[in-house]
Amino acid sequence: GKAIIRNVYPAHLTFFNDKLIKMGASIKLVEPTTIEVSCKNRLQSINFVTQPYPGFPTDLQAIFTTLACAINGKSDIKETIYPDRFSNVPELIRMGADIEEREASIIINGGKKLSGADIQASDLRAGAALVAAGAIAEGITNLHRIYHIERGYENLENKLNNININTKKEKSLLYFLYF
After folding, report:
1. CA distance 100 to 87
2. What is the pLDDT of residues 37-50, one digit of tens each?
3. Cα Rg of the chain (Å, integer)
4. For 97, which of 66, 92, 125, 135 could close a Cys bridge (C-beta 3.0–4.6 Å)?
5. How far apart are CA 58 and CA 123, in angstroms?
6. What does residue 157 show for φ and ψ, rounded to 5 degrees?
7. What are phi and psi of 7, to 5 degrees?
């Protein structure tokens, strides 16, 4: 598919963009702060190590972990900045992801369907990655402790519903409804 992403600074994301391109995505600068990301074929697996800027940002590792679960192949991710960044991994495993945990890295055998489950966000970035997992999972996903996510993403439920991801929010819980 294709997505337009606004309010980004592509120069700050060169390493990230390079990884997406190596995976098979196309990234086109539309305006100085707007990019178009598209993909004609399925993405390929990826290996990376988080590093200080301008390397691969640790803040994006969790969302890339969810992405690696969805694509075919084996991805190897090593976390060198923040050792607790893999807090989303047990939740992804609960959803059916095939992830082998090591001391400071994970190996993801991607391409397996995720299934809805009761999961919980442990922090903002892990929560955002679990939102993505809930969006692609089959069945109903109940994401608890969304207050972590709400401090970084305003009007999340509305934004998800606007892109046809059926959600319902109740207190500190976000339901993903799969149809």
Report:
1. 13
2. 999 999 999 999 99
3. 16
4. 92
5. 13
6. -55, -45
7. 60, 40
| Span 140-174, pLDDT tens digits | 999 999 889 888 988 888 888 888 888 888 877 77
The DSSP-derived string for 116-175 is --EEE-SSHHHHHHHHHHHHHSBS-EEEE-THHHHTTSTTHHHHHHHTT--EEEETTEEE
Compute the C-alpha angle 55/59/61, nearest 5°: 80
**What is the DSSP pairing of strand 73-78 with strand 105-110?**
antiparallel
Average pLDDT over residues 27-40: 95
Report which of 131, 128, 83, 92 is spatially closest to residue 113, judged by C-alpha positions.
Answer: 92
103 burial via Cβ count (<10 Å: 0-12, 13-18, 19+):
exposed
* Neighbouring residues of 133: CB distance < 8 A, sequence distance ≥ 6: 66, 69, 88, 91, 92, 95, 97, 114, 119, 141
Helix axes 124-136, 61-70, angle to 10 degrees: 20
Closest-CA residue to 64 (of 45, 39, 40): 45
Residue 78, both tokens: 């090593």
